[in-house]
Write a structure and sequence with these properties.
The complex is a heterodimer of chains A (about 475) and B (about 100). Chain A contains 15 helices and 11 strands. Chain A is an alpha/beta fold and about 475 residues long. Chain B has a domain of about 40 residues: Histone, subunit A. The chains are: A alpha/beta (about 475), B mainly alpha (about 100).
Chain lengths: ~475, ~100
């Protein structure tokens, strides 16, 4: 098999067996980068020198038998909102144009301990705010499947890098669908784990109560292995959970007999593209034929997820982004009269329009006089949405639906109407509000050849059943 | 009900957000905010009387630990990121006379 066609686990196995050297894997990946990057632009920073230096260290450690992880020696791309010591971390914002972290995010550190070789940092929507990777201050990323279209977002660079073969796998972050939606648009597999499964230490915060790091990968097996490598309690993230059931690769079983799958009727209403609907129904039928129990049901409160999400996420963002003030790191404006003028000019010049829009809405809903009516109200509706999922998971093991209402939009068509862009998050954001895990897996293509993604939700801490269902579906579907 | 954001309110939001907005940006921000609030107002259709606001999905409470320094002196590394530094400290504009 040609190196570039290998999955991360296949490559890891070949490296462990001594059939492939880590340096050869890097050569193969950089050949793909040289061929595709000018057009696709998956990366903000590519660290060739660092990657080759790290490859040498990892190869020695493997040769000495010091590392035995299935991902040892496999090159990875990291979304540019995770801190990497000594390597530029911009969050795709001008305000962090020169920020070189003094420490590494826990999830990335865990990959390094497993022998991963970091290639660089991927493009994204500025501060992960957006659904197309067009709000980046460093240029747009294009969908490698069709470069007239967006890769989705906000982890668009990570999804594009995997789809274009510019890495063997990538890390992304998901606050409202930012792993699952670009995975769907680019035809790769992505998992957002249960809230608290992966440490957020070193992930630049957007909506802290919603943010989770997760894998974007070539297939379900890779995604499970990567998730296994990055999960675990971290005392540096007080919201991380001490779970004992982190053996996600044990769930890679080709068997859905008796798995109860519910399909929310509300997900198939107005706004859903007919080709997407047909592909999802076909996939559901195939799972049924394989022995799953599939039925439709009414999931309550679907339309309230978007207004709830934008209230909570923007409120948290307005607070989290207060730290960017031009004092300790990042961009500072050239001319200013006093401290407050410096703050305001720095932030106005450093942030892009979508980030400012969300900071302003967030500041407003938290302000005195509006706090109860907006922010507190949204937290109450969040409790009701969580209840609706609790009810659903009494009857079903898996909730199945589309990742997004359409396939990837054309470049340049989304940002002019933010409201319309927000509506595209309808199927993904409720998982973040309810804290539940979700996997996105390719299940077809539209007439234009653009990938269609299927999404599977499980109850909190039930990654195993969605991984098992996704793995079984992948066996039925075959190569994508 | 259509929300109307006054000049005064957008001025206040600018202060809270620490953003400097020119006139065109203010008008755009008013329009965006009004549209989003009209949309968020849908939540008013739901009766949430007696519902406990949910900030976190898992029942986690404060985690306390001993206040012990575990990392070394990183002053030099940290100051490398400072827009301006002098004598091992961040330089900020004069804050009082």
């Amino acid at each position: 098999m040609e190196l570039s066609q290998m999955s991360a686990l296949q490559l890891g196995k070949s490296i462990a067996a001594g059939e492939v050297k880590v340096k050869e894997a890097l050569d193969a990946v950089f050949t793909a980068v040289d061929a595709r990057e000018a057009e696709v632009h998956s990366y903000i920073t590519i660290d060739r020198e660092g990657a080759y230096a790290s490859a040498e260290r990892v190869q020695q450690a493997i040769d000495k038998g010091e590392i035995s992880s299935p991902l040892a020696g496999v090159p990875v791309a990291i979304k540019d909102n995770m801190c990497t010591e000594g390597l530029l971390t911009t969050c795709a914002s001008k305000i962090l144009c020169n920020f070189v972290p003094t420490y590494t995010a826990t999830a990335v550190e865990k990959l390094q301990a497993a022998g991963a070789v970091i290639l660089g940092k991927t493009n994204m929507d500025e501060f992960a705010m957006g659904s197309t990777t067009e709000t980046s201050a460093y240029g747009v990323t294009k969908n490698p499947r069709n470069t007239a279209h967006v890769p989705g977002g906000s982890s668009g660079g990570s999804a594009a890098a995997v789809a274009a073969g510019e890495c063997f796998y990538a890390l992304g972050s998901d606050t409202g669908g930012s792993i699952r939606q670009p995975a769907g648009y680019c035809g790769v597999t992505g998992i957002k784990p249960t809230y608290g499964t992966v440490s957020r230490y070193g992930l630049v915060a957007y909506g802290s109560s919603l943010d989770q790091i997760g894998p974007l990968a070539k297939d379900v097996s890779d995604a499970a292995a990567i998730l296994e490598a990055i999960s675990g309690y971290d005392e540096k993230d007080s919201t991380s959970i001490a779970r004992k059931d982190l053996n996600f690769t044990a769930a890679l079983k080709d068997d859905v007999k008796g798995v109860r799958i519910g399909i929310p009727r509300d997900y198939f209403g107005e706004g859903l593209d007919a080709e997407v609907a047909a592909a999802i129904k076909k996939a559901a039928d195939e799972l049924k034929a394989a022995g799953a129990v599939v039925e439709e049901f009414d999931l309550a409160l679907v339309k309230y997820a978007i207004p709830t999400y934008y209230t909570i996420a923007d409120a948290e963002a307005s607070s989290n982004l207060e730290r960017f003030d031009g004092i300790k790191y990042g961009y500072r404006t050239e001319d200013y009269s006093d401290l407050h003028d410096m703050y305001k000019k720095t932030r106005s010049e450093g942030f892009g329009p979508e980030v400012k829009r969300r900071i302003m809405l967030g500041s407003f809903v938290l302000s005195s006089g509006y706090y109860d009516a907006y922010y507190l109200k949204a937290l109450k509706v969040k409790a009701l949405i969580k209840q609706a999922f609790d009810e659903a998971f009494k009857k079903y093991d898996v909730i199945l639906g589309p990742v997004a209402p359409t396939t990837a939009p054309k470049l340049g068509e989304s940002l002019s109407d933010p409201m319309k862009m927000y509506l595209g998050d309808i199927y993904t954001i409720s998982a973040n509000l309810a804290g539940i895990p979700g996997v996105s897996i390719p299940c077809g293509k539209d007439a234009a050849g653009l990938p269609i993604g299927m999404q599977l939700f499980g109850d909190c801490f039930k990654e195993d059943v969605i991984i098992r269902t996704a793995y079984t579906y992948e066996k039925i579907r075959g190569e994508f | 009900m259509a929300n109307v954001i006054s000049d005064e309110t957008i001025e206040y939001v600018g202060i809270l957000s620490k953003l400097k907005l020119d006139d065109a940006e203010k008008e755009q921000a008013k329009k965006d905010l009004e549209e989003m609030l009209d949309y968020i107002d849908q939540l008013g259709e739901l009766d949430t009387e007696g519902v406990e606001p949910m900030s976190h999905v898992h029942p986690v409470s404060n985690r306390f630990r001993e206040d012990v320094v575990t990392n070394g002196d990183e002053r030099e590394k940290i100051l490398k990121n400072a827009p301006e530094e002098r004598d091992g400290a961040f330089v900020v504009p004069r804050t009082f006379d």
